[in-house]
Every structure is written in C-alpha cells, then in structure tokens.
Specification:
alpha/beta
Length: about 300
C-alpha cells in the first residue's frame, strides 16, 4: 500500500513538473521563442516607423507571441552597412535598406532604385512577378545570405533640396550633394554635373549646417522628421527616383524559423509595406504645404 502511495505521489509530482516546464517554455509566458531586432535609420516620427511597429504587432499576434519583432529607429543598432554585414553572418537582426545597397552584392538589382525606373506603386507591385527580379532575390539569399522579406515599401519620390535654386542640371554643376554610399545613387547625381558626397543619414543635418554639402536628395517625408527645413531653402521637384525600400533579414535565420512563422513574417511585412506606402503618397501634399509655410520655395518639375 505504501509503495502504491509512493508511486502515485511520484507520478503526481512528475506531472506537475512537466506542466510547469511546458508552461515556462511557452511563448505566452513572456519569453518569445524567436526575436528579430529590426533597425532603420529614420526617426520615430517618420511614417515608416509606425509601419514597422504595425508589422511587428501583427506578427506577434498571429504567432501568439512566438515571434517578436523589436523595432529600433534612428540607427540605434548601428549604421546600415554594419547591420547588413551582421545579417550576412546570420544574426537575428533586420534592416530597412534599398536595392541600391543590395546592388553592392548583386549589381543588376540596383536598377530598381535608378532614375525613373518605376513611377507608381502599381508598377512596383508588378515587379514582384518578374522572373529577373526573383532571380536577383534568390541570388541575394543563396549567395550572400540576405532574405528580402518585401520590397513593397515605397517611400515616395526623391527630390533635390538645396540652398540655391536648381531649375536645370546646369544649376547643380559644382554643387556637393549628399547621397547614400551606393554607386547608382552617386553616378545618377554625377550625371547631372553635381559632386556626390556619401554620408550616413544621421550625418546630413550637421553636414548641411557646416556647409560640408550644399544639398541633399530625399523624399518629402524626411524633411519635417529631420528638421531639414532649418538648413535648406529650395525644393527642386525632380521626382527622379521612386524610393523602393527592401526589408532584409538573414536567410540563415529565416530558414531556421517554423514554416508558418516564415509565411506570417513575409505576408505581414508586405501588407504593412503597401499600407504605409499608400499613406506616404497621400501625406506628401500635406508635408509640402507645411514646408511652404516654413518658408521653403518649391520649384515644380517641368516636363518638355
């Protein structure tokens, strides 16, 4: 009888221990099974930051806490180029980047951020079905370790923001214009007669203050968030590049996720990207009106 009692107690204790272990190991207990640290250079007031937070919330809800995305604005985890190398090494980090920087690895893909390559969100959507584009994405993943979750994040049209009027390419000659450190950006600016100066996003404001550069080429939504209206006077509405952003993580880390988590991560990234892109395009008129109130002079694009 004693041995039966002892056996029953042992079974009961074992069951309690197993339940406790199972409870403590479940994502719902507060310890996500997978965590992605996502970095971007934009400020917390930018529409993209809100879009990334929306993506993170949707993923956490659909995976019931099993996959959590922590979003870090203002390059809190480091400069873009350093994060990209961490991604290649398999770290659980992600980066908002662009095809121009991906072109440093697969040159052909850089054309997606070339002048007048795409001019509407609908045109960007069509790119997803192109075998050539899919081939570039496969090469990035298989050869260089970059998994592109989505390139459906359109940040708007890039224009020239300067301290002197630039109505024609001749007006840009001799001007030092900040560009990201990628050949297609730099050569596009050089083709107009300006001198490209590669600087990180966070270095632009002091560079303009100290007159290290004469201007920048950015999208409208960057201006109020970075307070660039304090150091720039003119907007030349060239719309020369529709800025297509890439959300990139480690292919190795992605492949280690459960298949359903992979599907959710991609689906929600694409969904949030399209929603944010449409919001940005709608908001550009509002930002432009606010800049005029701040004293900016707008030089509209003229088509011959």
């Amino acid at each position: 009888m004693k041995s039966l009692k002892h056996f029953s107690m042992m079974v009961a204790v074992s069951m309690v221990l197993l339940l406790a272990i199972a409870f403590y190991q479940t994502p719902a207990f507060g310890q996500p099974k997978y965590v992605l640290k996502f970095n971007h250079v934009l400020g917390p007031k930018e529409p993209y930051h809100a879009g990334f937070q929306k993506w993170a919330k949707a993923v956490e809800e659909r995976t019931k806490g099993g996959l959590k995305i922590e979003v870090f604005p203002s390059a809190q985890l480091g400069v873009e180029e350093d994060i990209l190398e961490q991604i290649r090494a398999g770290a659980n980090v992600g980066q908002n980047t662009d095809s121009a920087r991906m072109g440093n690895y697969v040159p052909g893909i850089a054309c997606m951020n070339g002048p007048y390559f795409a001019e509407t969100i609908e045109e960007v959507e069509k790119l997803k079905k192109m075998p050539t584009v899919q081939g570039w994405l496969d090469e990035l993943a298989n050869k260089y370790g970059f998994k592109v979750l989505s390139f459906g994040w359109v940040q708007g049209y890039r224009h020239f923001f300067t301290n002197k009027p630039a109505r024609t390419p001749e007006d840009l000659k001799g001007s030092r214009i900040r560009t990201p450190p990628a050949p297609i950006w730099q050569e596009s600016v050089r083709a107009l007669g300006a001198t490209p100066v590669a600087l990180a996003f966070g270095e632009m404001y002091p560079a303009l203050q100290q007159k290290v550069v004469d201007g920048v080429e950015l999208v409208y939504n960057n201006i109020p968030a970075g307070r660039f209206y304090e150091v720039l006077k003119y907007v030349s509405e060239t719309g020369h590049i529709m800025l297509i952003n890439f959300e990139v993580i480690s292919a190795k880390w992605f492949n280690a996720l459960p298949a359903d988590y992979q599907k959710i991560l991609v689906e929600e990234c694409d969904k949030a990207g399209m929603e944010t892109s449409k919001l940005i395009m709608e908001k550009e008129k509002e930002v432009k009106a606010d800049l005029i109130k701040q004293g900016e002079s707008i030089l509209p694009r003229k088509l011959k």
